Amino acid sequence: MVGNDFNEIPLRLTIAYHGAHQNNITSCSFSNCGRFFAFVDQPQIVLGYCVNDLLSTSLDENNFKPSLSSHCQTSSLLSDEIINNTESLNLYANLTDSSNNWKILTSELLHGDALHVNMKPIFRIKTNGDVISMTFASGDSAFCRLPHRANKRRSSIVRESQVSLLLLGLASGVIEVYNVFSLVSSSPHIPKYVLTDDCTLVYLLSAAIDGSLRVGSVHRGGEVRLWDLWDDGNMYGKLQHKFTIPTDQPCSEIQGEACTFAWHPCGRHVFLAGERGHGVVLDAESPFSRVAYIRSGHYHRISVAKFSKDGSLLITASYDSCCAVWSVPEYQCLHRFWHMGREPSIPLRGGSNGHHIYGLSLSPDDFYFITVCEDRCIRLWPLAPVNSPLKIYFELALQTHTNLKFRSLAFSPCGRIVAVTTNNHDVLLFTTRSESIRLGTQCLHAIRKCVVENILKKTMRRSIKYQYHNNDSNDMSLTTSNNNYNTLFQNCILQIHLPSPVKKAILRNFVN
């Protein structure tokens, strides 16, 4: 049963941005520090906003509805020098003004009653190519990958011991890296450096969250590259040849083509998934040994993969209309969330079903996650074994614009804002209830994280294979019955001397 934490979570559309040019807004992202939000306004233009400005524009703390009186107040986190520099950055980019493209949706409907507001970006970036993907990265020099040579190899944009970076992946194959605080400073010159290896489009960027400034990039053709930004942007790994899945036939492996990538929170492992619904878990350092693999569970392209913040679960989304939850570290399927309202037939899973899942994002407290789907609905799900979402936003599904698609999805680190972008030049900002993470929730998170990290240390060099519950080798589906759960994580939790309700809460009700 879903706990009370899920029963009162609102998901309200409160602010929207509609640009003057009908472009794809291919990507959006929040900084890890929670202060900045950026999105691709035009193919070669990136806009950045202060999250506090978005919050003050959209929220009335008393009733969680749009505030008409407190909008456009500059964040107190920014100095007067940064505030005064906004205009100079606008001139530097030589762009048309976009501050009037925002509106507060008083009716909570995109095409309902609205009030236009004047909200200026705090930075604009003009890139040297079309931006396809972006991500923020936070670094702490205490966690750099190669400390013995870090001081000699640091670029000028990572001179400080703690930095916040914005990475932009271009269609040309180049990755542009900016220091966020340089973007909002008074300097007339915005420093950057460039990562490049060949000319294949950068489909996805993902940064490790452990402060090591390691970045994974997924390129057209399935190549995955690993970069070390503390080490002057050195590329230290190519993983495409490591994306192989064993089969039941001797000396036979499935060659994969990666289309998504994720870092485990502890930074020890990376997850790659591909077009055919397969996935592989590798060590994050050379020789990039295979730790585990997913050979079944999805029937179509795995479009998104996210680890829970405590590292105990992996959530994958696929074009087969399913989100799957996997245990870590053996990656056994625990539950599936079907977006068609039921489990579809095999032909629908592997083909055109109208419910391809394009995006997935977890809340900061790991209580729930949000997906965007081909049917133009936004679904809020609890991270628990349920069969129905908590809420479905379906206004866009009712529109006659047949080519409308969602492009990206992001949760703010504070959990207050969910951002969704479309190919119709819309940025939709949804708000959630303002609640600090409870002490009990933090304790559960700490227990899960500690247990997972200790398990990973013991299994670092061991390949963990799946236990199939069907003797028929042609049936490659994983059993999802709770009676068959027997994971390392659950065994460790069950051995801890805690009350049964606490153990069940730690396991998120994924056991009987």
What would you say this structure looks like, in words?
The chain has 512 residues and is mainly beta. The protein has a domain at 242-355 and 436-512. 13% of the residues lie in helices and 34% in strands. The protein is built from 9 helices and 32 strands. It has a 6-stranded antiparallel sheet, covered by helices on one side. The longest helix is centred in the last third of the chain and has 20 residues, at 439-458. The protein is globular, with a radius of gyration of 22 Å. The N and C termini lie close together (11 Å).
Helix content: 10-25%
> What would you call the shape?
globular
| Count of helical stretches | 9
Averaged pLDDT, please? 80
**Main pleated-sheet profile:** 6 strands, antiparallel
Low-confidence stretches: 1-7, 66-95, 463-485
Give the beta-strand count.
32
Structural class: mainly beta
Span between termini: 11 Å
Radius of gyration: 22 Å
> What fraction of residues sit in β-strands?
25-35%
User: What topology, given as strand order, has the largest sheet?
Assistant: 6-5-1-32-31-30
